[in-house]
Amino acid sequence: VCDLEPGAIVSDACASYNTLEQLNDAIHPYLHSITQNTDFFSHYRLSLYSKKCPFWSDENGMCGNVACAVNTLENEEDIPLVWRAKELGRLEGPTATHPGKTQQQENRQRPLQGKLGAGVDESCVVEYDDECDDRDYCVPEDQSATAKGDYVSLVENPERFTGYSGVGAQQVWESIYRENCFSKPPKDVQSSAQSPFGGASPFGGFGNEQQLVAANQLRNIMKEQGIQQNVKSAIAGGNAPERLDPVEFDDTCIEKRVFYRVVSGMHASISTHLCYDYLNQTTGEWNPNLACYEERLHKFPDRISNLYFNYALMLRAVGKIKQHVKDYSFCSEDPVQDTRTKNSVLRLASALPDGPEVFDESVMFRDPDAIALKEDFRNRFRNVSRIMDCVGCDKCRLWGKLQTNGYGTALKVLFEFDESDSSKDPPLRRTELVALINTLHRLSHSLSAIKEFRQMIEKRDNIP
Length: 464
Ligand code: FAD
Fold this sequence. Notes:
Its cofactor is FAD. It comes from Massarina eburnea CBS 473.64. The chain starts with 12 loop residues before the first helix and ends with a helix. The chain has a two-stranded antiparallel ribbon. A two-stranded antiparallel ribbon has the order 3-4. It is mainly alpha-helical. It has 16 helices and four strands. The structure holds flavin-adenine dinucleotide. Flavin-adenine dinucleotide binds near residues 162, 170, 220, 264 and 274.
């Protein structure tokens, strides 16, 4: 018997889902501990309020519910040592100055020379968050050297039901999905026979069935919401699609399908969290809401499939930087805390799968027009990260930005990092590392929540 009953989508999905669920049972406790119990991974810095929605006036979409609010850390003493700007800049002088790209490059090549001092790890010294690298899949959070951003405790501001909905939320989702509408006609239809989950991967044989599901899904969105041309034309940069044609989507190449699945999987994960941590407005209690799950996810096996897809993708990305994570310096000036953080990271790293077992990114961007396609892909993902500034609920914006950064970082690791020679890898900012691990944790939590929801359905329906 298939646990998830997604037979309509992937014939061998049970084995695939089971494999990922088993992996999740193994790593969830480590991810939970690292994200809840270490200062480094339980805090985040971002521009939460200072950026305006670049695409439309967002005044009408603001969420007034108390659940939408975020408590930021306003006082320096409330910010954990490991996150204080002063601490980060201490070896550069009283005020940290950004070293600029050239010096960063030099520092990377000669990490033990110059101002940094022998044996001092770079991650303790300078911040890279306000510098853009061409290989980034997200727009950096802090655009100016002086903007230090807002500090938040992720534990104190959990992602859960906020009540944010209506036209504002719909407009954001709609414009995110429109980014999937790549302007070039798909030349590489033949490559669609291959999937990053092909061969021995647990997602074997996705291919054409998935295309069909994705196209149907897109048709549903179009039917349910209608396509608003004004949103399309509002997208900055002039690279909006000429038209949204679901038939074209039917034949689309693997890279474009991956883009769609990442976005849909992120959406599904957000829906899972809000259904799992739902406010019963009559009793005032926070509980899982089975009806919410059935309405938004259970009825749509393709959405659940996309969520599992994202889990596999993130696992591969974090697995790829296993060594980097193991070697990372946590510089709180508190050796006890640093050791605890390091041990948590080591436990996680040791439980991660090796190599491209769950996701093989090497089948992507192989065709002759791969460079242009990759750039298009990257630009579109950057646009998704810009759209996050249009989310009219602070809490949703916080988690939306963090998870977009997490997926953007994963894509950067998958497509720009070289496992055999790391010397030319782009830098990994501390906010990217924190977003990456927290996004994996969010997905891991989604898998656990879905399992619980499934059991609730089985119990209710007396399924043995
Ligand atoms: P929505 O979830 O708004 O979906 C809109 C349409 O998209 C659906 O009608 C459907 O056609 C399609 N769709 C839905 N799911 C998928 C999928 N997985 N794949 C493909 N298509 C899909 N609310 C909270 O309570 N807490 C939060 O933390 C939160 N975070 C958010 C973060 C972001 C970035 C955004 C944009 C919204 C967030 N929201 C949050 C709001 C929430 O996502 C919903 O928009 C809201 O609950 C209204 O839901 P809905 O039923 O109208 O459908």
